[in-house]
Amino acid sequence: MIREGMPFKRLFTVMVLAFFLLCNGPISIVSAGEAGAPSDLKIKLNGELVKMTDPAFIRDGRLYVPMARIAGLFGANFSWDGVNEEVTIYTALGDTIVLGNGVPVVYFNEGRYRMDAAPILTDGRLYVPLRQLSELLHANVQMNTETDVIELTTVQPAVITKEYGLDDISKEFGSSMPELLKRNGLDGKATDKPGTQLKVVIPSIFNHPVKPFTESDLMLLAKITMVEAGYESYEGQLALANVILNRVKDTNFPDTIRDVIYSGKQFPPAHNGLLDKSKPNASVLRAAKDALNGKNNVENAVYFFNPNISKGSFWSSLDVIATIGHHRFAR
Q1: 57 phi/psi in degrees, rounded to 5
Q2: Pairs from 35-40 (Cβ < 8 Å, separation ≥ 24)
Q3: Fewer CB in 10 Å around end: N or C, the chain?
Q4: Range 200-209 average pLDDT
Q5: Contact (CB, 8 A) for 284 and 237
Q6: Contact status, residue 193 vs residue 164, Cβ threshold 8 Å
Q7: Which are the contacts of 111, defined by CB distance < 8 A and separation ≥ 6?
Q8: R_g over Cα of the chain
Q9: Is 261 in contact with 267 (CB distance < 8 Å)?
Q10: How many other β-carbons are positioned within 10 Å of the β-carbon of residue 278?
Q11: Which regions of 164-247 does DSSP assign to beta strands (E)?
Q12: Which long-range contacts (CB under 8 A, 24 or more apart) does 159-165 make?
């Protein structure tokens, strides 16, 4: 039922936020790419109104909040790496979370997982989708449509007793036994030892694990990026690294980073010794790592070329996706 007299703009905001909190996916009624600030948004933590000095905003159907403020509310500490635009969060329950600007892969303790939306750095602050950040901080989030308040609730770990074991906890919190064990870093041999505390909020990212990359893959990708685009901006370096990773995913090319680089003729440095001598700088290392973690600014591009050097019918026939620095990125 629509409450009588509620202004349409406010009603729309309530409907958007309520829908956001009821699902894990994007809100379809908010246009992709648009950013809106729900001006009358209020957030409570454990029943207490929270003062938000930096506004939340909606983008691509997700509510983004300032990471530092929300993490601090739950007693977490964090350190910011300005060179790599990456934050490491140390939660009150002992979890370690690593988030990067525009990087969809999050490091959570010993695992790597894909978020459904990447963090965003704006005005010097890292913003993260509220639902996923809350889950990582072991909290619940819900919308009170009567008061138009988003309510965050700290979830305390469950404590095993003789009468209250793993099976009971799993049923009460709606998680499977494997999920509960994984969340707490336990194996199938875990016993119901009284006094053991178990984290019970299962982050939705657990449904999207990402395979790890090797150090050799990282260094090889960084080396070829340094040779081909070391003089370019970070964005140009990121694009170059992604051309190689896009090829790995494309059935028309080899399916490993090494084979992509060493096959064909697009990467002469792989055959003339320059690749072996390459020493990646900090910017290139960041670009290679971010690309391996899913940050892609040239989706589907499998070729790159300098139009002042590479000429002819083949290059002119390509569909150019982006031009960054001296290079065009195409398919």
Answers
A1: -150, 160
A2: 35/59, 38/13, 38/63, 40/10, 40/13, 40/148
A3: N
A4: 96
A5: yes
A6: no
A7: 209
A8: 23
A9: yes
A10: 19
A11: 197-198
A12: 159/195, 159/196, 159/197, 159/198, 160/192, 160/193, 160/194, 160/195, 160/196, 160/197, 160/198, 161/194, 161/195, 162/192, 162/194, 165/192
**Dist CA 187 CA 282 (whole Å):** 38
- Residue 60: the pLDDT is 86
- Average confidence (pLDDT) over 90-110: 97
- Per residue in 151-198, pLDDT (tens digit) is 999 999 999 999 999 999 999 999 999 999 999 988 877 677 899 999
What's the one-letter identity of residue 222?
A: A
Q: How many whole angstroms separate alpha carbon 318 and alpha carbon 331? A: 6
Distance CA 238, CA 284 (A): 8
Instruction: Give the three-class secondary structure for 210.
Output: coil
Instruction: Return the exposure string of 117-137: e unless at least 16 CB atoms fall within 10 Å of the residue's CB, then b.
Output: bbbbeeeeebbbbbbbbbbbb
What b-and-e string marks burial along 238-253, b requiring 16 or more CB atoms within 10 Å of the CB? bbbbbbbbbbbeeeeb
Torsions phi, psi for 87 (to 5 deg): -115, 140
Q: Give me 219's structure tokens.
A: 């260094």
Q: Which residue has the tokens 């590479």?
A: 310
Site of tokens 């506004």: 55
Q: From residue 130, how far is each of 47, 49, 62, 237 by CA, in Å?
A: 17, 16, 8, 30
Residue that is written with structure tokens 């469950």 in the block: 158
Q: Over the stretch 108-166, which tens digit does the pLDDT of each residue have?
A: 999 999 999 999 999 999 999 999 999 999 999 998 877 778 999 999 999 999 999 99
List, edge to edge, every strand of the sheet that includes 35-36.
Answer: 35-36, 57-59, 62-66, 125-129, 120-122
Backbone dihedral region for residue 196 (phi beyond 0: left; psi -120 to 50: alpha; all else: beta): beta
**Residue 320 near residue 329 (C-beta atoms within 8 A):** yes
